[in-house]
Amino acid sequence: MTGTETAPKEAGAAGTRGDGVDDWLADTRTSYDTVARSYSDLTRDALGGEPYLRAALALFADLVQTAGGGPVADVGCGPGHVTAHLHRLGVDVSGIDLSPAMVDLARREHPHLRFEVGSMTDLPLADASVAALLAFWSLIHIPDDAVPAVLGHFHRVLRPGGPLLVGFHAGDESRLKTEGYGGHPMRLHVHRRRPDRVADWLRDAGFTVKAQLLLGLDESLPGAVVFACREAGTP
Q: How much is the pTM?
């Protein structure tokens, strides 16, 4: 995943400043290219201290296997730490991230896995081509008005019956992040969202929401995960 503040990640899409899509995507790409090495070093072992996140990922892996297995996309994978964790759980997973520097790091650190550069705003995957999809703290820079289209891409590329796991910062506020991960310059917004709002967006995109969990990852930065699926037989 790409970028959190004290939790899993922020990337795969962007902040907002009232400019066009290309502008906020460029801001996100540049920001994470700048901090890629520091981000990777600071977050490499983050899952080790988060038993509830590991439990969520283990459940996701079990759901993938129960649904028959197949290729899984980690969208906004950052340096690939979570991608590799899912691989160790027996998932046939590959990663996609907006930041070329993050993808380069992921390929070097996890050469046995596949990573590609791409944006979730125009997801470079064929229709119904993945068995499951993970977006772990990779929606948090996407402006509200772009979220429905992104979730539409998730629905498009998932096979009928395929599970989806979304993780994000919980709350109601957004803030501009201008530096991070060792004091490197950044420019992107970080959006905190209520689980019910994310669940509503997922339903509007054609998903069935299965579960919502609120997590106390950090007293100042709570998180949430939502499990959903594209039901069999949906267009």
A: 0.89
